[in-house]
Amino acid sequence: MIELQNVAMSYGGSELLSDMTLKLVPGSFHFLTGPSGSGKTTFLKLCYAELTPSAGQLTLFGQDARVMSRDATAAIRQRIGVVHQDCQFLDHLPLAENVALPLTVAGKSADPAELRELLSWVGLKAQAGALPPQLSGGERQRAALARAVMMSPEVILADEPTGNLDWEMSLRLLSLLMELNRMGKTVVIATHDLNLIRTAKSQVAARVLRIANRRLQLAGADL
Ligand SMILES: Nc1ncnc2c1ncn2[C@@H]1O[C@H](COP(=O)(O)OP(=O)(O)OP(=O)(O)O)[C@@H](O)[C@H]1O
């Protein structure tokens, strides 16, 4: 579904990521690690067609990312749910409307029962009417996950979803992501948190990718 063949990415002429080859198969679970600034967010942006590679072949759901029409890009984005590092909510809209936003933007309206079910899945039913600035960090991250799965995507890309959360809340978020994976979704989580990776690996067949020296490597069994 997401396939990279010798993909490189440059910003302003200097190459940040080089020669990346990887195939994300349906139902797989990957972590992505690497030092701050190594290119994890950039890698995820390539995977959801926010950026196009400066070299190499990137195929998203069978289509060449470098020559995709706007319509094809929009269609592919519906198949990929993204949990952004900073959540990116519209602060003047209540939580439920923020979560339903992907549907609203696509010109559809959310089924109220489905929306309630989704909010209750992430433990935020009682906060449906709250404005994003009134939510805690953990609540915001869970809301961001709910929004990412609103369109029933096949792939979930999560960028540091537990970045500012305490351990208990990190585990809660991880268990939601593992549940999605058990339902057959492909999951990629960018994180610095090695404890989170170890915990997940004891429960799911997760592979760990690491960005080092501009390259994407498969980390060893020590992680
Ligand atoms: N649009 C851009 N234009 C130029 N440089 C950029 C752009 N976006 C990111 N960069 C640079 O690319 C590098 C990698 O950024 P990226 O956000 O992908 O790293 P990261 O591994 O996700 O970092 P962190 O762990 O700190 O979130 C950084 O040096 C950043 O400044």
Automatic annotation (TrEMBL):
Key words of the record: ATP-binding, Cell cycle, Cell division, Nucleotide-binding
InterPro entries linked = AAA+_ATPase, ABC_transporter-like_ATP-bd, ABC_transporter-like_CS, ABC_transpr_LolD-like, P-loop_NTPase
GO BP annotations of the record are:
cell division
- Any one Gene Ontology cellular component term annotated for this protein: plasma membrane
Q: Name one GO molecular function term.
A: transmembrane transporter activity
Query: Which intervals hold domain ABC transporter?
Result: 2-223
Keyword presence, Zinc: no
Q: Does the keyword Cell division apply?
A: yes
PANTHER family given for it?
Answer: CELL DIVISION ATP-BINDING PROTEIN FTSE, IMPORT ATP-BINDING PROTEIN
Q: From the Swiss-Prot or TrEMBL record, give the protein name.
A: Cell division protein FtsE
Q: To which species is this protein native?
A: Rhodobacter xanthinilyticus
